[in-house]
User: What shape does this take?
Amino acid sequence: MATSENQYEIQKSEQEWKEALTPEQYRVLRKHGTERAGTSPLDKVYSEGTYFCAGCGQPLFSSDTKFNSGTGWPSFYQPLEDAVGTTVDRSLFMTRTEVHCDRCGGHLGHVFNDGPKPTGQRYCMNGVSLKFVPEESAS
Ligand code: FE
Assistant: This one.
């Protein structure tokens, strides 16, 4: 596991991130914060489309893998290929698997092993870290 953030393709100084992000995005993406459950409008979105990193614009999740976990955070059973990385997070007296964008290192949320089929995984994401772009209707 790499311990340095210098591995990421997208590099910005703290000041640059502060200028590029809203204060809440900065707190979650760059400072490993957690948004309050139930506060993200994306929690209730189930339209077809793609969820992009709010930090760098990398595609992270497809609406095809989104499900209602009942937690108040947007949840997915699988990320897109080569989109996210994980680290071990031992904060808050728990051992959890932290999930981040593998292009900018922005913190997205955590992944747990109590998700639905077919993967059994639950990617519990902060909606503020994501930007949803609906698919254009094919009419
Ligand atoms: Fe990113």
Notes: The chain has a mean pLDDT of 94. The beta strands are 49-53, 59-62, 66-67, 75-76, 84-89, 96-101, 107-112, 122-125, 130-134. The radius of gyration is 14 Å. The longest helix spans residues 23-30.
